Amino acid sequence: xxxxxxxxxxxxxxFFTINAQQTIPFRITKHNNIIVKTLVNKSDSLxxxxxxxxxxxxxxxxxxxxxxxxxxxxxxxxxxxxxxxGKMNLNNVRFFNNELTGHEADGKIGTGMFSGKTFKIxxxxxxxxxxxxxxxxxxxxxxxxxxxxxxxxxxxxNVIDGKQQQEAYFLLQSGxxxxxxxxxxxxxxxxxxxxxxxxxxxxxxxxAGESIVTKQGILPFFKLNNSVLKDVPAGxxxxxxxxxxxxxxxxxxxxxxxxxxxxxxxxxYIKPSKYFSDAYYKMK
Length: 284
Fold this sequence. Notes:
Radius of gyration: 20 Å
Structural class: mainly beta
């Protein structure tokens, strides 16, 4: 876990105090993943993907940069690491070894760096903002946030057949490049294979040689609070071997809003970002 970091006081051009905060710059890849530049243990320069569905950090076996100063135990866990991100310094960061990550990343870093603080994912300006008190919420909509085992879930409505709204809970999953991925239970109960227009289908094999069928369909309408998106790409699994236990709200959907998470993780506030009406990401 991460210890609480210090807060830098930012002043506006007119010398009036904005909310006390830190800012962390990031870049967005063409696969919708957020990448932050870090210096680990004052030695290893690593590009880490922000993973909203985890609290700690991890290193990928397919990393592009060396991570020689992260020492793992027999369980592939490394505790008590330091991570510098911009002007912010984190202590006691836990890394897990050999976890796959997104494109262009050496590993992942989670929400533990915002522990106990209100924070914002600002897609308009490519940065995180960390606050020590509630920021200006003008223009934002409040959404109930469900926090479980270090992961965040929200409720949204899905118009599948053009008529009835179907409620579903989604795990915020910034590591999934697409917009929506439905759980097996939801896909089967709502008969997505029959009701959605399927645009692509792919068959893969797992390590046991079993076939796994993934499908991409078009959801007519997706409603998150008062915001409605049309013709949203939605993935789901077909066939006998299905592995998706929860539904994902992926990175392509996340980037369409700016997000402010309260310090208690009971509420998140959303506002359409500059990407709200962009073309959707095409899963391959």
